[in-house]
Write a structure and sequence with these properties.
Layout (H helix, E strand, L loop, with lengths): L1 H12 L8 H13 L7 H12 L13 H13 L10 H22 L2 E4 L4 E5 L2 E4 H10 L13 H14 L9 H7 L5
Antiparallel strand pairs: 1-2, 2-3
Length: 190
């Protein structure tokens, strides 16, 4: 009788106790946010690519949730002030999506760079930066890429030097100095 009484007390107390490990709670929230991570998951792959672009080591970008991806998630969460769980919850996914959209907007701005010619100087301008061709040529020269004469004209040699610089820095190789290329190149400006 005493054993039955103890068992009943335990059964009454257990529902009030939170004995589910946090990791199980995090897994359930992650599954509700991005789906199952037991196999290949395209949203996991998207997150891996995004984390990799941000400088986090995720290992392979194969859509599988491995230890390195979990570590990257933890580091990312910590860097933006979220609870560092290593699981993709709604707040983490929202932050990933916000960053992805910001990058897409930035890339769209880069596609619409306007070249303006005047009697005094030739400029490349966009809402994010304003730099002359002479400044670009000088920075290319300082970086060790030969743009030819520093004449303020975006001629074939300057374009070739810009392409070589972009290739060396792992940027899109198009010979155009937009915001991304300039953000790397301006380090060599005088």
């Amino acid at each position: 009788m005493r054993n039955i009484l103890i068992a009943l007390i335990i059964l009454m107390i257990l529902p009030a106790c939170n004995i589910v490990p946090k990791s199980v709670q995090y897994q359930k929230e992650e599954e509700g946010t991005i789906g199952s991570v037991d196999g290949i998951n395209l949203l996991v792959e998207e997150a891996q690519v995004m984390f990799s672009n941000l400088g986090y080591d995720t290992g392979n970008k194969d859509g599988r949730m491995g230890q390195k991806t979990r570590e990257a998630i933890r580091e990312f969460q910590e860097s933006i002030g979220l609870k560092s769980t290593g699981y993709i919850d709604k707040l983490t996914w929202r932050a990933i999506e916000d960053i992805r959209r910001d990058i897409e907007r930035s890339e769209m701005k880069e596609k619409y760079i306007v070249t303006v010619k005047s009697a005094y100087k030739e400029e490349i301008s966009s809402p994010d930066f304003n730099v002359t061709i002479k400044e670009i040529q000088a920075a290319l020269k300082n970086a060790g890429f030969d743009p030819g004469t520093l004449d303020g004209k975006m001629g074939p040699r300057t374009q070739q030097a810009a392409k070589e610089f972009q290739r060396a820095k792992g940027l899109k190789v198009d010979g155009k100095v937009g915001p991304k290329t300039w953000s790397e190149l301006k380090k060599y400006a005088e």
